[in-house]
Amino acid sequence: MLSAFSRRLPDWLRHYRRDLFAGDLLAALMTVMLAVPQGLAYAALAGLPPHVGLYASLLPLVAYALLGSSPVLSVGPVALLGLMTASALAPLAAPGSPEYLAAAALLALLSGLMLLLFGLLRLGALSQLLSHPVISGFVSGAAILIIIGQLQALLGIRSDAGAGALMLLDIAGHLHQLAPLTASLGLGALLVLILSRSLLPRLLHRLGLPANRAALLARLMPMLLVVASILLVQSFSLPVAVIGALPGGLPPLGLPAADWPLVRALLLPALMIGLIGFVESISIAQRLASYAPSRVNPDAELRALGAANIASAVSYGMPVAGSFARSIVNAEGGARTPLSGLLGALGLACVLLWFTTLLRALPLAVLAAIIISAASALIDLRTLRRAWRYDRADAYALLGTLGGVLVFGIEAGIAIGIGLSLATLIWHASRPHIAVVGRVPGTEHFRNVQRHEVKTHDNVLCLRIDESLFFGNVRAVEARIMKELKRHPNVRHLVLIMSSVSRIDSTALDMLHQLNSDLRQRDIQLHLAEVKGFVLDQLQQADLLEQLSGEVYLTAFEAEVHLGGK
Amino acid sequence: MLSAFSRRLPDWLRHYRRDLFAGDLLAALMTVMLAVPQGLAYAALAGLPPHVGLYASLLPLVAYALLGSSPVLSVGPVALLGLMTASALAPLAAPGSPEYLAAAALLALLSGLMLLLFGLLRLGALSQLLSHPVISGFVSGAAILIIIGQLQALLGIRSDAGAGALMLLDIAGHLHQLAPLTASLGLGALLVLILSRSLLPRLLHRLGLPANRAALLARLMPMLLVVASILLVQSFSLPVAVIGALPGGLPPLGLPAADWPLVRALLLPALMIGLIGFVESISIAQRLASYAPSRVNPDAELRALGAANIASAVSYGMPVAGSFARSIVNAEGGARTPLSGLLGALGLACVLLWFTTLLRALPLAVLAAIIISAASALIDLRTLRRAWRYDRADAYALLGTLGGVLVFGIEAGIAIGIGLSLATLIWHASRPHIAVVGRVPGTEHFRNVQRHEVKTHDNVLCLRIDESLFFGNVRAVEARIMKELKRHPNVRHLVLIMSSVSRIDSTALDMLHQLNSDLRQRDIQLHLAEVKGFVLDQLQQADLLEQLSGEVYLTAFEAEVHLGGK
Fold first, then answer.
1. Which band of pLDDT confidence, cut at 50, 70 and 90, is reported for residue A502?
2. Which residue from A2, A421, B48, B226 has the fewest beta carbons nearer than 10 Å?
3. CB contact under 8 A, B475 and A391
4. Is A566's pLDDT higher than 60?
């Protein structure tokens, strides 16, 4: 009985080695110390009461620990999804209202269900939907939006201007109204965070700490800031905006209320949040893969992130994904198995049960500083520099996506990014390589007429198509064929050599049909040669082969033997 | 002086043959007869006063005639852009208000400027951004939305429900409130239009008319309906909603008023309208290319459509594109040169100057019938059927786009379509062909170990990559490499044979960097062989070649000679 039960446990738990426990426990403690301030901050970023961020940190950790394929990825609220949540919910309800909270949980639920579905359908390839430069542009743009959005809270200014650049201008115009106390608290905290990223690790290292330990300690600075600022505000009763009373105790459980119009309005944002969260999580898991022996499995990640979002939704949380900062603290802290995630959840439960009252005096300006510091780490100039040097089209796609996010906002930004990913593909595809070929005398080989001394016939034109045919290059291929036919006016037989064509999509099939009938009118026969077996099978299903004015030849040589003499 | 002037005239005008004039004139007259009812109808569809549709038909014809590359394409308001205009302007102003009219003209202006810019940048390849199935799904979905949206006007019912399926339900619930007179007028007109598409051509043909003449006459039925319904309403003073007084005279000229927030809100819709209008126009021009000897040039089309939209904007019009119905009437009517477009503009000017008062009694229900009939011709089941049989992924992309338009509306629908176009590419790309190869004994040729008897070495693994490397397949390639290394545990040298790789994008470059350092840790050297010249140049710009743990070999044979003995 017991052994039947134990056999159903995950591998890592059945074979758990005791010597790993200390590392898992220490990592869990450190992750909790970062998860508390970040959870509060990202909930605020999403327009939600801060405690929602703690709710969304608890159960998702458990769900991911049980299903995820990375032992170090730490799942919970992240800055990017906080911004996307705020952007999705803004038109639907007033921030902080009960409807808004319910909609945030519903968003997580829908997003989770979609990811779970994609995972069950084994659509892990979705993580390749966007190129690195486009993702980098999107994340950098979102980070800049996040920073601009937090300036008000950081400086204690009220602005009513929309978002992005407009808000920046408006804030600049209201700078004289800044609240000195709030601003000095916020800017001071920001300064500490920035210095702790650059100077503190080096300082600690010089004091004798190993470099990675020093960096790890410096990463826990947000918690130190939280404690220090709470003490400061309470000791001197400073008149600054604070987060106020948080509900104590574990999150209540329940399904978010939903009606069809709300679900419909949230479907698309949920899809985007799910995909972006997935793409980011998997890239974090892969960057940290060297900390643990197991390989990251995209399909398992889809299911685990789906479950984590559903877990967040039923505990009145918000959309969640893997957090880079917390995952690296987890990994560096010594986490080697998912037990660290389970212990982290336990730690967060303790915080929720007994320590929430301590947090009430946390100044909002410090939260803003934490958000800004985290967001500024997301701005990625290195990818832009590399892409600019290596592949200009990729650099333009990056800049276009970044600009799209800044000008049109986060959702249109993703659409623009997807469009640009596609556009760069099409751009390159629209210059397919096609060669006029002839036979190398004395052999059965056909080579490019421009590079080799070959034998050709006046009435036969042999074109070798060096890429698969799809909607992105059919027009270019057609134009090239027409150009070559113009150059060879005596041609009566056009032979397309398909040795490199491993796919013909419906758009290309339409083109071949059209080409066949156009050429028939001009009294030119269209032949195919060296068609791969499975491509031929596919063409047989369509009726192209029946309507073809010419023949299908096994080899170009066979075609020449047949047609050359005519 | 005169000859210098004449040399600046377009080719077709300098070499105009008099015998073409009768055809051009007749075609122009017929096009005008269709342009008047369609212009009125599509302006109404866009939420604009009907006369805007006539304004938008006049100058764009002139602009396109001077710059376009198709002598038969007829440019002006079209149903698809009418719907997209309404969707873009709905959140910005009340339909029919002065702000709404100005915004419609601004939309045309922005869209025109973008197309003109794309044309000057020679981005004609943009017409390949979407696959045929995705375009078909988008157009069918939009047509269904258009039809649902016109049911109110057709039946004389008032519905306040949003759009799409909801509106359909609401209308079904209000069916008992339908206005009998309006409904019978509308349904009667619709019946006539449907019959005139299917039965009338056959009937006329049986009465002795040639088939194409019969079809052409049947296509002019909308004008006949307009005249008949006006006579009916006026003779019997029928109490039905009519379009009312239209301003007479030529369109006034001027630039639409604009401020930055409005421009910003319209940029993305303008881009979508421009691209969709361009894609549709070019596909119409290509389908009708057989009517005229000239070839359709995508870059020239971009510039001409851009100019047409700008011309529409400065005459207080709306976004325009090539109309299939009017273009085929134009072509069948005998148009062989752009003169037919210029004569059509002249005809429309006459209508605006002298005949607008006759149109005031035109019932709105008849306009709705004209729109519904035109939209129903856009619903395309044939492409779905073919794609379903030939390439299931394409069929899913079609259905996904169609569903996206119906559920989320027209703009999200395009985004979904672009996403699905990309997704089908990625889907196929994520299964790249990679072969483990070995040397055919006695030769320098390397072939697939699964198909040929070849010689391999225990410590060298040769992989031939049969596709270009880009963000869509890097993960699959990496996974395959890892799998093969696991299968060959004694390998110390991995040779990637790049003979089929004609491009490596930045995402793939990142993967190669990562692979190189991962393998170095495992004490495996990474070598490249048979790298194409221009790919090598590109890799040299990045620092991959310096960091490569192994060598770059000219041929796989050279690599084997070097490494095989070690």
1. confident
2. A2
3. no
4. no
Select from B295, B426, B510 the Cβ nearest to the Cβ of A132. Answer: B510
Longest dimension (CA), chain B: 101
Whole-angstrom distance, CA of residue B435 vs CA of residue B462: 8
Residue B108 lies in a domain: yes
Q: What's the pLDDT at B49?
A: 93
Q: Give buried/exposed letters for B32-71 (b at 16+ CB in 10 A, else e).
A: bbbbbbbbbbbbbbbbbbbbbbbbbbbbbbbbbbbbbbbb
Q: CA triplet B213, B214, B220: central angle to 5 degrees?
A: 90
Q: B234 and B255: one domain? A: yes
**Of B475, B482, B505, B428, which is closest to residue A128 (Cα–Cα)?**
B475
Q: In total, how many domains does chain A have?
A: 2
In this structure, what are the phi and psi dihedrals at residue B74, rounded to the nearest 5 degrees?
Answer: -110, 120
d(CA B205, CA B199): 10
CA distance A64 to A304: 5
CA proximity to B126, closest of A146, A566, A420, A80: A420
Chain A interface includes B388 (CB < 8 A): no
The interface residues of chain A toward chain B in range 93-132, judged by CB-CB distance below 8 A, are: 125-132
Each residue of A99-135: pLDDT tens digit? 999 999 999 999 999 999 999 988 887 777 788 889 8
**CATH number of domain containing A482:** 3.30.750.24
Same domain? A361 vs A456: no
- B147-201 pLDDT, tens per residue? 988 888 888 877 665 556 667 777 777 777 778 888 888 999 999 988 888 888 8
Q: What is the pLDDT of residues A181-193, one digit of tens each?
A: 888 888 999 999 8
Residue from A275, A263, A264, A269 nearest A115 by CA:
A275
- Domain membership of residue B4 (yes or no) is no
Q: Does A387 touch chain B (CB under 8 A)?
A: yes
| Final residue before a domain boundary, out of B423, B445, B462 | B423
Query: Within an 8 Å CB–CB cutoff, is residue A265 touching chain B?
Result: no
Q: Which of A419, A482, A507 sits opposite B131 (nearest CB)?
A: A507
Q: Are residues B461 and B527 in the same domain?
A: yes
**Quick one: B406 and B441 in the same domain?**
no
The whole-model pTM stands at 0.77
In a domain, A315, yes or no: yes
> Which tens digit of pLDDT belongs to each residue from B380-429?
898 899 888 888 888 999 999 999 998 888 888 888 888 888 788 777 77
Q: Which two tokens stand for residue B484?
A: 């093969």
Question: Encoding tokens for residue B361?
Answer: 């009694």
What tokens does B514 get? 């990562």
Same domain, B50 and B167: yes
Is A397 contained in some domain?
no
**Percent helix, strand, coil in chain A (nearest 5)?**
65, 5, 25
* Angstrom distance (rounded) from CA A148 to CA A152: 8
Closest CA to A158 of A177, A141, A144, A186: A177
Chain B nearest-CA distance from A166, in A, is 10
Q: Is A471–B130 a contact, with Cβ atoms under 8 angstroms apart?
A: yes
Q: Are residues B280 and B154 both part of a single domain?
A: yes
Write out residues in chain B with pLDDT < 70, as ranges.
1-8, 159-166, 292-294, 565-566
Report chain A residues whose CB lies below 8 A from the CB of B389. 541-542
* pLDDT, tens digit (0-9, with 9 covering 90-100), for B58-71: 999 999 999 998 88
